[in-house]
Specification:
The chain is 60% helix and 2% strand. With 273 residues, the protein is mostly helical. A two-stranded parallel sheet has the order 1-2. It starts with 7 loop residues before the first helix and ends in a 12-residue tail after the last helix.
């Protein structure tokens, strides 16, 4: 009653090539003897098969969309940025991992920040939508990464650590900023050419400052929504709900535009356009 709980693939290969195995081959084996305890046998099986699972990202690492982006990053050489498409690559220096790139594109371009914690959607259900559009290139991904860095710098404005640390908070802010930029015609013109913006140091600095300013304003709104309110809703549930995220973003944007009309705020493009 021998049962192989780990190593079946190795045994299959050995069996296929048994005619080539030499007499001095030695293999390490672990043998566990049990007496009819099926539950214990199940636990042994689970414990013996705990290798890292293959991720959807790994399956896409040789896809033409990923290898093209990797080549683009290497070609432009902007600020030493590199694009990481699979586990095991050197992640030191200015790197953007394709998982993060997909989340940035999902939030900003597709307008679905509520899905950014479900990485399988980035590399499976939504893969073509996320990476397969003509506008997706190395310049766009680098710009979105720089915008996210400014958003992350603004998070302490919320004043409540659990929300600040929650992954979907930052993607909501990126989504909300994208919707505000859509209402700002001058901003849309600038953002249509991310390469020109990134290579204009002075304008880029003003642009990123405007991103941080808007993000800080929206962080105050999040604090009012989830911390200061008498009956604050559960932020995790809200940020995972498409309907509630869209409603919250709409309210934040209307409030911002109302303040613009009253000269209390400026459109983002006032800083850089």
């Amino acid at each position: 009653d021998y049962v192989v709980v780990n190593g079946a693939q190795s045994l299959s290969v050995l069996n296929r090539h048994k005619g080539k195995i030499s007499d001095d081959l030695r293999l390490v084996a672990k043998i566990i003897e049990i007496e009819g305890d099926e539950e214990f046998a199940r636990e042994i099986t689970l414990a013996s098969n705990n290798q890292n699972a293959i991720k959807p990202r790994d399956q896409r690492s040789t896809n033409i969309l990923q290898t093209r982006l990797e080549a683009e990053f290497n070609q432009i050489g902007f600020e030493g940025y590199r694009y990481i498409i699979k586990r095991g690559q050197d992640e030191t220096g200015n790197v953007i991992i394709n998982e993060e790139a997909g989340r940035l594109l999902m939030a900003y371009d597709l307008g679905e920040p509520w899905s950014c914690h479900q990485i399988y959607k980035v590399f499976d259900e939504k893969y073509a939508e996320v990476f397969g559009r003509p506008v997706v290139d190395a310049w766009r991904i680098i710009l979105l990464s720089k915008m996210m860095a400014k958003i992350e710098a603004s998070l302490p404005t919320i004043g409540f650590a659990p929300i600040q640390r929650y992954r979907l908070t930052r993607y909501f802010l990126l989504y909300a900023i994208s919707r505000l930029m859509e209402e700002d015609e001058a901003a849309k013109d600038v953002l249509s050419s991310p390469d020109a913006l990134l290579t204009d140091g002075e304008r880029l600095e003003h642009f990123l400052n405007s991103v941080r300013t808007v993000a800080a304003r929206y962080c105050v709104d999040l604090r009012e929504e989830f911390v200061a309110a008498a009956e604050a809703p559960d932020y995790k549930s809200v940020l995972k709900s498409p309907t509630q995220v869209q409603d919250m973003e709409s309210r934040f944007r209307k409030s911002y535009m109302y303040d613009v009309a009253r000269d209390r705020e400026k459109l983002p493009s006032a800083e850089f356009a």
